[in-house]
Amino acid sequence: MITRRLARPSNAFSPSAWTRASLVPQNRRQQQQQRRALHHVPPLEFDETFKTKGIPGLISQHGYRIAWTDYQSLMVQKLNELTAGEPYEHAHTKDIALQFARDPMSASLFNHASMAHNNHYFFSTLSTHPPKLDSHPSLRQSLVNTFGSIDTLRTTMLDTASAMFGPGFVWLVWARDLDAPVGGIRRGTWRVLTTYLAGTPYVEAGYRQQGIDTNIQNATSYQAYKDSQPVNTVGAFGSSSKFGREQAKLPPGGTNVQPVLCVNTWEHVWLRDFGITGKRTYLTEWWDVIDWGAVEQLAPTASKGTVEFMRF
Fold first, then answer.
1. Rounded Cα–Cα distance for residues 23 and 288 (Å)
2. N or C: which end of the chain has fewer CB within 10 A?
3. Which residue has the higher pLDDT, 44 or 29?
């Protein structure tokens, strides 16, 4: 009996050929991610000292490596993987967080972008020899105008952070009122707010202006709607002006905030050096090493004036 061996179809893959073919896209994507490592761990002014000595009075050398070097590197690595080849791969972490804050299908992208932004904000206000708040009298007086005293501000931030059941951030922000100004004056004041996990303090993340019902539209009609939006930027006021279009992105009746300071309450930041019951001690020592010079640089000009409002 002669057994005939059936010929393999010309378009069939051998196991080795199939394996090689399946690896091509994966390898290509890995190479693409390596080439497109556009997001990176931002340099800290005192990073070299922190790496060798830790943050004086707050975090040890090992604790710093965990909370900043290793953790921030992980956030950046994941962010590069998630944005590789996308139109927003060049975008700042804050812009990515705002863009995808309300997209449940992009939760991972939002979390990594927002956390990278928040963690950097925390470490950027720490230094080896932090200047005290008294050396910045205009900022100090502005804070006193809102909170009554610096002790009240300190107690508010530390008590709020200590009471948080779960990781997150406590922020000091300058909140500018978005209601229609009276006599051309738009007021602002200092506020303390909290965000949990990787939440963002920016109110723009919670609001999106949408002039059509997307449930009854298709991709073509939606694109036509977007293309029909006014593009005029001439003039200082009006809904079609540059100012008006920027204001339309913000929630009506709300506030526009500028964060200037935050404390990180994630356990990986303080658990290594302070132990399971040391959260309050960590917070107390954090207040004593704040770089108020860095805080003043982040504070908007209007917040440091002799009055608590700004003019447009």
1. 53
2. N
3. 44
Task: Look at the alpha carbons of 65, 66, 71, 72 in this order and tell me if their dihedral is positive or negative.
Answer: negative
Structure confidence at residue 40 as a pLDDT band (50, 70, 90): confident
Tokens found for residue 108: 């991972």
Q: What is the largest CA-CA distance in the chain?
A: 105
Which token pair is 140? Answer: 């100090």
User: Residue type at 84?
Assistant: A
- CB neighbour class for 298 (10 Å; exposed up to 12, middle 13-18, buried from 19): middle
Cα 100 off chain centre by: 12
**Domain coordinates of the chain in residue numbers?**
45-208+238-311
CA dihedral sign of residues 88, 89, 95, 97 = positive
Q: What is the pTM of this model?
A: 0.71
Q: Please name the helix (run of DSSP H) or strand (run of DSSP E) that holds residue 174, with its range, or none.
A: strand 168-177
Q: What is the pLDDT of residue 210?
A: 39
Topology (CATH level 3) of domain 45-208+238-311: minor pseudopilin epsh fold (3.55.40)
pLDDT surpasses 70 at 37: no
What's the CA gap between 229 and 231, in Å, rounded?
Answer: 6
Query: Would you state the pLDDT for residue 55?
Result: 95
- Cβ atoms within 10 A of the Cβ of 235, count? 11
Q: Which residues of 89-104 are buried (b: 16+ CB within 10 A; e: fewer)?
A: bebebbebbbbbbeee
Give tens-digit pLDDT for 48-81.
999 999 999 999 999 999 999 999 999 999 998 9
